[in-house]
Amino acid sequence: MHFSDRSLEAARPFLTWQRIIDWAQTHYRDRSFRKDERIPARPGLLYLVHRGAIRLVGTAQLNILPEEDEPEPRESSSEFPEEAFLGFVDAGHPFEIVAQSPFNLQAYAHVDRTVVVWMYWHDLDNWPHFRKEVYEAFRYQHQRKLLWLSALGQRRTSERLISFLTLLIEEYGEPCEQGYCLPYLLTHAQIGSAIGSTRVTVTRLMGKLRRQGLIFIREDNLICMPNLPQIQQQEEQ
Fold first, then answer.
1. 15-24: long-range contacts at Cβ-Cβ below 8 A with a sequence spacing of 24 or more?
2. Which of 140, 172, 175, 217 is the most buried (most CB within 10 A)?
3. d(C-alpha 153, C-alpha 167), whole Å
4. What are phi and psi of 158, to 5 degrees?
């Protein structure tokens, strides 16, 4: 059971979900993807993650020149679009792709054998109860994005990093002996893209957080945290 409230999955009747999967297979609306394979999603459609997890990334080409006092210059030129990690969507949950120039949103399979189902919004009329669940899921995602924006608004990179990791583990963390761990690998470059920093800076700060006991890394390179009350007490000191 994830650390966060996964009531959407717990409340859904298994029969309803199975009917949706059967419908998708009958109408050729499901597909399996390899790790890091791009999902050919397009705006105006609804996507459901049946198995595995997808990684949302955004790119923007704004051609903004860096300021002279920029404390952490980007490792690549600003004239080229950069991918920014925007979060996960795991099994049993929906996502959609929004097109808004000059921003581009894309989805990738984050783990091997990720299965995604797609449908038109009006297809939800076949399952009124499930349609309500989908709306609730998007409302929850919107609330989490507001917290994400709040975390990224902090001035210090170290504060953005610990807030970002805390939000991820609150939402996706699975219990382990010492606390909670992310079930998915996340590179320092991906973390840097999410918090507006560089891979080198993230690596240095991750080492600092480990020494402070705020995070620990399992042998399979998964990022973990002790129980959150302990983390909050250490941050307040």
1. 16/127, 16/129, 16/130, 17/92, 17/130, 19/127, 20/48, 20/117, 20/127, 20/130, 21/50, 21/117, 23/126, 24/50, 24/117, 24/118, 24/119
2. 172
3. 14
4. -65, -35
- pLDDT tens for the 237 residues of the chain, in order: 344 444 444 445 567 889 999 999 999 999 999 999 999 999 999 999 999 999 999 987 655 444 444 455 444 434 334 789 999 999 999 999 987 777 788 999 999 999 999 999 999 999 998 999 999 999 999 999 898 888 888 999 999 999 999 999 999 999 988 899 999 999 999 999 999 999 999 999 999 999 999 999 998 899 999 975 444 444 444
The domain total for the chain is: 2
Tell me if the pTM is above 0.85: no
Chosen domain end from 141, 173, 207: 141
**Shared domain check, 45 and 24:** yes
Is residue 202 included in any domain, yes or no? yes
In a domain, 148, yes or no: no
User: 188 and 113 share a domain?
Assistant: no
d(CA 12, CA 154): 37
Give the domain extent around 115.
1-141
